[in-house]
Design brief:
Keywords: Membrane, Transmembrane, Transmembrane helix, Transport. It is a single chain. With about 400 residues, the protein is mainly alpha-helical. The chain has one domain: Growth Hormone, Chain: A. The C terminus is likely disordered. The two termini are about 40 Å apart. Helix content is about 75%, strand content about 0%.
Length: about 400
């Protein structure tokens, strides 16, 4: 889905004449539910009432059904809808998809041992990028050949069987495969519910009072902010300034994502489990700083068009590997306590907020700053993140992540 909504569609509308600001606004609108995710869905999952299907799996199945209904809505927009209408429908889809993501993350956090999180992160990352890469390549061709209706219909047909697969995976052996009725929960007095909500909010706030948690939260924002700030205008410039074909660009982006998210992620996942996510995170942040410095140097030397594939590779593959180390760190930092799902989603929302903010600012800044300056600024940002990682111990071992919080 991400390959269709965030890459193939963006390139398609860029080729049709959409400005960098319009493309950035589309990316921001579609990404907004992922920013609001902890407020919308974290408490829903953390405080879920019993269900015969399992407390998290119930929400997973429900949200996937709603997501498919939203995709069907794309077919009602006509043959040549405007980008604003497409963004609005995909915003609704993101609302449902972000709930499904919250439920899935909480199921992982509650069942995967700590020494297997690196490989689990690599597996989930590989699944994401394979789907994104395939979606980018396939739907870039479909958008060019048959327009949005053909691409939307194919997307609905391809994703429906995948959504139905959630019906076959139980949280616990005794869970029912399908049960529409919720389990019975004890009724709590209104004052008791208020007190429980206040205690929940206090526990959540306490998790972010420690220096390491605050640093990790800031890094989650900064990483995606810097990436969007450079990648969005660079991709638009390749199509509109340097004459790249939108389909060719989408296929290149898909191939690069596939390279980083499969072969690279698989090898790195095992390394993260062996050396710890903190050390791996520092090394990859430093590598990202270096790649953006090199990219800026190539652009400054006048090779922006000729070296476009190299630059895209530098700013796509290495950051994709960074997430394999970042996600286990975040999972370990938010594994304990009643607010664990919400805490994890706050970190994820910081990343999504960075992506939304970077996409929204990319257009205005593209008219003020050259791509060389932007690349240099992003390199400095990653270097600062490298220095901010506490030395000598993993971020995941921060004092605010155990069960002793009041």
């Amino acid at each position: 889905m991400a390959g269709f909504a965030l890459t193939a569609l963006a390139n398609h509308f860029a080729a049709a004449g959409a400005t960098t600001a319009e493309i950035g606004r589309h990316l921001a609108v579609v990404g907004l539910p992922w920013v609001l995710q902890p407020l919308l869905w974290g408490p829903v999952i953390d405080r879920a009432t019993p269900s015969r299907m399992g407390p998290r799996r119930y929400w997973l199945v429900l949200s996937l059904a709603c997501a498919q209904v939203c995709l069907a809505g794309l077919l009602l927009l006509g043959a040549a809808p405007g980008l604003t209408a497409v963004s609005a429908v995909l915003f609704l889809h993101s609302l449902a998809a972000s709930l499904a993501d919250t439920a899935t993350d909480r199921m992982i956090a509650g069942s995967v041992p700590a020494d297997e999180l690196g490989r689990t992160s690599a597996g989930t990352r590989a699944g994401f990028v394979i789907g994104s890469a395939a979606g980018t390549a396939v739907f870039a061709w479909l958008l060019g050949a048959g327009g949005l209706p053909a691409a939307s219909g194919a997307l609905l047909l391809l994703t429906t069987p995948l959504a139905l697969a959630a019906l076959l995976v139980r949280e616990e052996p005794g869970d029912r495969l399908l049960a529409l009725r919720r389990g019975s929960a004890a009724r709590v007095a209104a004052r008791g519910r208020v007190g429980e909500a206040v205690a929940f909010a206090r526990e959540l706030l306490a998790a972010f009072r420690h220096r390491d948690a605050a640093l990790l939260l800031a890094m989650c924002f900064a990483i995606d902010f810097g990436l969007a700030l450079f990648q969005v205008p660079f991709a638009v410039a390749l199509v509109q300034v340097h004459g790249w074909d939108a389909g060719d660009l989408s296929r290149l982006q898909a191939g690069l994502a596939l390279l980083g998210g499969t072969l690279g992620a698989a090898g790195l996942g095992a390394a993260v489990d062996r050396i710890g996510p903190g050390r791996a995170l520092r090394a990859l942040l430093a590598a990202c700083a270096l790649t953006f410095a090199v990219a800026g140097g190539l652009i400054a030397a006048g090779f922006e068009a000729a070296a476009g594939p190299v630059i895209l590779g530098l700013v796509s593959v290495v950051p994709a590997l960074l997430y394999v180390a970042l996600l286990p760190t975040v999972l370990l930092a938010s594994r304990a306590g009643r607010a664990s799902a919400t805490q994890f989603q706050v970190y994820m929302a910081a990343m999504n907020l960075g992506d939304v903010a970077g996409s929204a600012l990319a257009g205005p800044l593209a008219g003020l700053l050259s791509s060389v300056i932007v690349a240099a600024a992003v390199a400095i940002l990653f270097a600062a993140c490298t220095r901010a990682v506490p030395a000598g111990r993993d971020l995941a071992a921060s004092p605010g992540t155990d069960d002793t919080r009041a």
